[in-house]
Amino acid sequence: MKKWNLVIDVAKCFNCNACAMACHDEYNGNSFPGYAAEKPNLGHRWIEIRQRERGVCPVVEVAYLPVTCNHCDDPPCMKAARDGAIQKRADGIVIIVPEKAKGQKQLVDACPYGAIWWNEELQLPQAWPFDAHLLDAGWTETRGSQVCSTGAWRTLHVEDEEMQRIAREDKLEVRAPQLGTRPRVYYKNMDRWAKEFIAGSVEAAIGGVTECVEGARITLEKDGKALAEALSDPYGDFRFGGLEQGSGAYTLRISEPRFASKAVNVTLGATAVLGAIALQPA
C-alpha cells in the first residue's frame, strides 16, 4: 500500500517561510471536521523554520530546518491519547481528531519533537495533519510542497519498500532516530544542520608578498588515520564538513611542493575556523 512521506532538503531551504505561511493560510480561521479545528491566529507554529549558524567571520554558514509533526509510524502521542483522540491512518498520516481530543493536554508533552501545540481557547491539542483533507480530495502534494520555490519540500506517495530505497540512495535521515518513533518526515543534507566543519586558508610569502596558496593538499587525520583530503581553492581556502560536534582531536597535514609541510592540531568542539595558516619555504 502506498503511504505519504515528506522529504525536506536542508540545503535548499533559505527561510522564505512560504510553507509556514501556506499552513497558516490553510488552517487559520478554517475548520476541517475529522482532520483539524481552526488554528489560532497567534502562538502556534505547526510548521516552524529553525535556524542555526556555524562558524565565525569570515566563514559563516546558516542552515534552516523546517520542523513539523513527523507522522511517526510508532507515535508516542497515540500511546498517551484517550478515547481514540489520535488516529494513525493506513496511509501513514497521524491525525489528532479534534472531536475526540478536547481537554487532552497530556498529548503536548507526549510528543518528543515538540510538534503538538495547545489551543487554550478550544482546549485542544493540535498539529499539522499533513494536509490530509486536501490529499483525500485528490491533491498529490501538500501545500508546503506546492508553494516551495526551491523544491526543498517533496511530497511522496509510495510504498514503504520504495521509500526505504529512496532514503538509502538519497542518504535521507530523520530527526532523533534514537527515539525509535519511525518518522515519515525525512531530511536530505542534514549535515548542514547537525554536523560541524573545520575550515581555514593557506597562505605563504611569494616574491616578498603574502599570497593565497592554491592547490595545497590538506589531509584531515584522526588517531593517525586519514579521513579526508582537500585542495585549497584559488583563495587558499579549504573546508572539511560532516564532523561530529565535540569529536575531539584532529590533525591537518598541509603540503605543497614549494613549501615545507605543516601539521596543525585542532580540537573540535563546535565548528572550527582556523583563519590563515602560513607556510614556510621548503
Describe the structure.
- The protein is of the alpha+beta class and 282 residues long.
- The protein folds into two domains: 2-193, Alpha-Beta Plaits; 196-279, Sandwich (Immunoglobulin-like), CATH 2.60.40.10.
- Helix content is 16%, strand content 39%.
- It has seven helices and 17 strands.
- It has helices at 18-27, 76-80, 106-110, 132-136, 143-147, 160-169, 191-194, and strands spanning 2-9, 48-56, 59-67, 86-88, 94-96, 117-119, 124-126, 153-159, 185-188, 196-206, 209-212, 217-222, 225-231, 237-243, 248-256, 259-268, 272-279.
- The strands form six sheets. Strands 10, 11, 14 and 17 form a four-stranded mixed sheet that branches.
- Strand 2 and strand 3 (59-67) form a beta hairpin.
- The longest helix has 10 residues, at 18-27.
- The radius of gyration is 24 Å and the shape is elongated.
- 34% of the residues are buried.
- The model has no long low-confidence stretch (mean pLDDT 97).
Percent strand equals 35-45%
The helix content is: 10-25%
The first-level CATH class of the largest domain is given as Alpha Beta
Largest sheet, strands/sense/barrel: 4 strands, mixed
Measure the end-to-end span: 66 Å
Number of helices: 7
Q: Provide the CATH topology of the largest domain.
A: Alpha-Beta Plaits
User: Roughly what is the average pLDDT, rounded to an integer?
Assistant: 97
User: What oligomeric state best describes the polypeptide chains here?
Assistant: single chain
Q: Could you state the order of secondary-structure elements as H and E?
A: EHEEHEEHEEHHEHEHEEEEEEEE
Structural class: alpha+beta
Number of domains: 2
CATH architecture of the largest domain: 2-Layer Sandwich
Shape: elongated
Q: How large is the radius of gyration? A: 24 Å
Total number of β-strand segments? 17
